[in-house]
Amino acid sequence: MTLQSMTGFARSVADHQGAAIAWEVKSVNGKSVELRLRLPSGFERLEPTARQAVQRRFSRGSFQATLTVGRAGGLQPQPVVNEAFLKDIAGLAQRLQEGFGVAPASADGLLALRGVLDVPEQFESEEAKAALDAALMGALDAALADLEAARRHEGDALRLLLLGHVDTIEALTQRAEADPSREPAVIRQRLAEQVRMLMDAAVGLDESRLHAEAAFLATKADIREEIDRLKTHVASARSLLGSGGVVGRKLDFLAQEFNRESNTLCSKSNAAAVTTIGLELKAVVDQFREQIQNLE
């Protein structure tokens, strides 16, 4: 399976018995499938079917779909003005202007009022409506297929980018593991110097207790577990990116685990070189997590 980004755009056009159909669909990041529809007046009946079409194809994303339907070749239905109603409304507007000083009504404002201007239904029979609806949904399905392809194309690019981040995390983990400060002989020498300095600086310290505390601190500062967990998370990330599908949430959780181990590495480090590696890890993990937010 391939990965999908949650961002994309597609447009589909079709013709049905002189009706020019156009769908524009775009998607951005979202926690679940959310759809906003912009439908021409009289086509609200398509909303449930359109929502189902989006939900069948996608698992996550915030979608916006806009439909336009026009008539080609001069066949556009002519609007009908309710002149009696318009006359009454215009008279009321005139009285309000004279009596209360309100701004004069504009022609486009009056025509925009419900009931003043009406566009007659072009497709009156149920058979004609069903045929038009089928053409409209076919065009929507074509737009959604193109959107899905666009999201997959961007998903392929994201996979390469994320794998590059994983490679960097692995390389930094290996650097931390191989850092000379983690050599047992180096650790023993550093602890011995610290104990000697304390013994020289203070009189009456319990030497055996001091050695025990030093050994405890050495154990606490060991980053072996963090390195092992980072290696495990690297393998898991590669597996998820290779399997594809809807893995955005899983990778986001994994990014949190990467961040946790990076923080612990910095806090437990007893060498400047390892601290620097931990800070570099945090920077890469932040980039990794930021890009994951675009994945379905």
UniProtKB/TrEMBL annotation:
Residues 185-296 form the Endoribonuclease YicC-like C-terminal domain. Keywords: Endonuclease, Hydrolase, Nuclease. It comes from the Bacteria. The keyword Hydrolase applies. Residues 3-159 form the Endoribonuclease YicC-like N-terminal domain. Its cofactor is a divalent metal cation. InterPro entries: YicC-like_C (IPR013551), YicC-like_N (IPR013527), YicC/YloC-like (IPR005229). Its EC number is 3.1.-.-. GO terms for molecular function: hydrolase activity. PANTHER family: UPF0701 PROTEIN YICC (PTHR30636). NCBIfam families: YicC/YloC family endoribonuclease. Belongs to the YicC/YloC family. This is YicC/YloC family endoribonuclease. It comes from Mesorhizobium marinum. The lineage of its organism: Bacteria, Pseudomonadati, Pseudomonadota, Alphaproteobacteria, Hyphomicrobiales.
